[in-house]
Design brief:
5-stranded antiparallel beta sheet, 4 helices, alpha+beta
Length: 126
């Protein structure tokens, strides 16, 4: 399963090609097929196919649907068998969290040990 996950994660940067392209075309000029990992652009979006564990093959179809990147289908099959859909119509959810990380007392101890005065400026700097 680790190889399957690694191939899936390695294929994710290709989704940016799909997002930047005008549907249904996908710019693939910089793409080079790798053993066990193939990407193809077509009228139905970007299709990624890769070798999974043992005798399994996986396929993911990516599209832009109403300006939203969408996993149209994630499927698996045994060699020479039919596809079984695992996920269909999934859309990513993005969350951005921003804020300040404050210095902890444990992080201040080395500075105190060096005789550095702990001031608001020192805390803000570190």
């Amino acid at each position: 399963m680790q190889r399957t996950t690694a191939c899936f994660l390695a294929a994710l940067p290709l989704t940016s090609l799909l997002i930047q392209a005008s549907p249904p075309a996908c710019e693939m000029t910089g793409y080079r097929a790798q053993p066990g990992l193939v990407a193809a652009s077509g009228a139905d979006g970007l299709t990624l196919t890769w070798d999974g564990d043992s005798d399994h093959t996986l396929r993911m179809r990516l599209v832009v649907d109403n300006a939203m990147p969408t996993v149209r289908e994630l499927s698996i099959r045994r060699k020479a068998a039919g596809w079984t859909t695992l996920v269909a119509g999934a859309q990513p959810e993005f969350r951005i969290v921003s804020g300040f990380r404050r210095m902890s007392n444990q992080q201040m101890q080395p500075l105190v040990g060096l005789g550095v005065p702990i001031t608001p400026a020192i805390i803000d700097a570190h």
